[in-house]
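Milestone 3.1: sequence recovery, worked example.
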């Protein structure tokens, strides 16, 4: 890199991956060496793992978010609120609202687009189904949940074929069971869990330790019916249809959709694969363009194994932060001439079960693994409730 001028680093995305990368770069690089700009289509950072709480009425969007511009500018990071239309890796430019923004190094942390259209009726704004994959969808699902409580009936919770973010479906099922019991309404609500996974607790990573046995036992104890290798094909006001013709009665259907790449990647030849995800090396650098990095959901990962119904590899917020820190270290190395780093991703998550929680760790996330740990108790529920505002506050002040 030219040491006489500032390196222009552009980060696309203002969520876990984008903000972590930008804040970490600001700490690693002298201000005279790099000009950092974050381009975000959203004005606010949302702690996405808390969206089930928003739907259940335990949190509001304001309580799990903050405006990003002030936080970035306080740390001498430029902020542009707008959606990137396309990327030209040859010209080293991104286009925002028709205007070109040049870069020397680009970080793509755009997240995903929910492919709700994969299941007719999934909605939530043009069909009866509900989802938890964005703040707006979580609020809509919460309004429908309140109406459902006034006139309860059968419920279906699960994931569509090709889904990768499977944890929220489990979490929502267990939280709903607990909430209905507290309201003395559980007896009026048969709950069916439908998942493309070949077994409960597969999570798109081939399973994690005894998660399968634990979840099977928990669902049986709570009278939650379940069907694995289920391919949801249609959602109506009164039922969910599977590809084999099976009909499951449902007056409230919460279905996690498959994810797709964002339009900007699909409009940018050479950047992503046909699904809009970006191929990278272990240091999260693009396999063709050496000055382009990608972190988070935007990164293309193959499935861990082949399953009868497609299940894709997950990317949690925790994993995204790992990617962002590694990418930032390597970008700083590109600029300052230091060593590069790479480490296999691991996953550590806490699943809210309503009255308690389960903590699961798998290192690395893809089997075979060095460590798999699982622990259940109320202390993990308290830890999850404390972690959400703590992490959000740290992100706000740039100290992830």
């Amino acid at each position: 890199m030219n040491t006489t001028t500032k390196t222009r680093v552009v980060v696309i995305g203002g969520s876990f991956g984008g903000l972590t990368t930008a804040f970490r770069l600001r700490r690693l690089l002298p201000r005279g060496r790099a000009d950092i700009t974050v381009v975000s289509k959203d004005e606010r950072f949302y702690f996405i793992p808390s969206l089930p709480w928003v739907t259940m009425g335990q949190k509001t969007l304001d309580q799990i978010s903050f405006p990003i511009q002030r936080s970035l500018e306080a740390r001498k990071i430029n902020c542009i609120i707008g959606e990137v239309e396309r990327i030209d890796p040859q010209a080293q430019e991104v286009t925002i609202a028709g205007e070109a923004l040049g870069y020397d190094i680009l970080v793509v942390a755009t997240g995903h687009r929910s492919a709700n259209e994969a299941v007719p009726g999934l909605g939530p704004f043009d069909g009866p189904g509900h989802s938890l994959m964005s703040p707006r969808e979580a609020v809509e699902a919460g309004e429908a949940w309140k109406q459902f409580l006034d006139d309860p009936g059968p419920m279906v919770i699960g994931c569509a074929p090709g889904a990768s973010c499977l944890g929220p479906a489990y979490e929502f099922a267990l939280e709903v069971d607990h909430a209905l019991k507290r309201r003395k309404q559980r007896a009026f609500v048969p709950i069916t869990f439908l998942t493309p996974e070949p077994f409960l607790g597969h999570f798109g990573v081939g399973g994690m330790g005894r998660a399968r046995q634990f979840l099977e036992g928990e669902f049986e104890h709570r009278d939650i019916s379940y069907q694995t290798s289920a391919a949801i094909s249609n959602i109506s006001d009164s039922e969910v249809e599977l590809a084999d013709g099976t009909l499951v009665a449902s007056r409230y259907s919460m279905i996690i959709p498959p994810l797709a790449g964002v339009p900007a990647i699909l409009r940018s030849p050479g950047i992503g694969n046909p699904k809009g995800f970006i191929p990278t090396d272990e240091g999260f650098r693009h396999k063709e363009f050496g000055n382009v990095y990608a972190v988070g959901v935007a990164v293309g990962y193959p499935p861990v194994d082949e399953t009868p119904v497609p299940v894709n590899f997950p990317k949690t917020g925790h994993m995204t932060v790992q990617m962002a820190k590694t990418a930032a270290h390597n970008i700083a190395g590109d600029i300052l001439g230091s060593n590069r780093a790479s480490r296999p991703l691991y996953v550590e998550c806490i699943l809210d079960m309503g009255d308690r929680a389960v903590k699961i760790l798998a290192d690395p996330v893809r089997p075979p693994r060095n460590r798999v740990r699982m622990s259940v108790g109320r202390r993990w529920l308290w830890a999850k409730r404390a972690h959400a505002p703590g992490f959000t506050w740290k992100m706000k002040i740039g100290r992830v």
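The domain at 7-112+261-336 is CATH 3.50.50.100 (FAD/NAD(P)-binding domain). The CA atoms of residues 100 and 186 lie 55 Å apart.
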